[in-house]
């Protein structure tokens, strides 16, 4: 069996973080201090969604200022999404998060969203 490393699975280049600190001093690290501008924009968009709203990864990318960066949205939510309503974001065809369908479904149904066969009817989603 071939072992896959992060570099073989990751499709987007890892963004460089610019640190504006004097040489020899390390910046303080906190959960948000390590976010790129794109990640921060993605989390802001997702945090602005109201209960019952459902959007696609692509729509979040557009609102965050990076059309075409739907995969970056998924990666950001996977890494930093524990404090945001990640369940309100689905694939373009309405499909729920692979591997997390049951949990996402519970959250969406609790907000009044209809989920059928692992998908949200995107034409009727949101408020």
Structural summary, described in words:
The structure is a single chain. The N and C termini lie far apart (47 Å). The protein has a domain at 35-120: Arc Repressor Mutant, subunit A, CATH 1.10.10. The protein has five helices and four strands; from the N terminus they run ααβααβαββ. The protein is mostly helical. The longest helix is centred in the first third of the chain and has 11 residues, at 37-47. The relative contact order is 0.14.
Q: How much β-strand is present in the residues?
A: 5-15%
Structural class: mainly alpha
The run of helices and strands is: HHEHHEHEE
* CATH class value of the domain at 35-120: Mainly Alpha
Strand order in space, largest sheet: 1-2
Distance between the termini: 47 Å
How many strand segments? Answer: 4
Please state the second-level CATH architecture of the domain at 35-120: Orthogonal Bundle
CATH topology of the domain at 35-120: Arc Repressor Mutant, subunit A
State the helix count. 5
Q: Please identify which CATH superfamily of the domain at 35-120 we are dealing with.
A: Winged helix-like DNA-binding domain superfamily/Winged helix DNA-binding domain
Write a short abstract of this structure.
The chain is mainly α.
Main attributes?
127 residues, mainly alpha, 4 strands
How would the blueprint of this fold be written?
Layout (H helix, E strand, L loop, with lengths): L5 H4 L27 H11 L7 E2 H7 L6 H11 L8 E2 L10 H10 L4 E2 L2 E2 L7
Parallel strand pairs: 1-2
Antiparallel strand pairs: 3-4
């Amino acid at each position: 069996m071939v072992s896959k490393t992060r570099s073989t699975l990751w499709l987007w280049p890892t963004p460089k973080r610019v640190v504006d600190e004097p040489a020899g001093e390390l910046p303080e690290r906190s959960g948000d201090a390590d976010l790129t501008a794109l990640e921060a924009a993605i989390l802001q968009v997702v945090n602005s969604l109201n209960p019952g709203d459902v959007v696609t990864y692509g729509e979040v990318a557009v609102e965050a200022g990076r059309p075409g960066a739907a995969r970056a949205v998924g990666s950001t939510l996977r890494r930093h999404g524990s404090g945001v309503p990640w369940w309100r974001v689905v694939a373009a065809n309405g499909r729920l998060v692979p591997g997390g369908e049951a949990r996402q479904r519970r959250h969406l149904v609790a907000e009044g969203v209809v989920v059928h066969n692992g998908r949200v009817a995107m034409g009727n989603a949101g408020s």
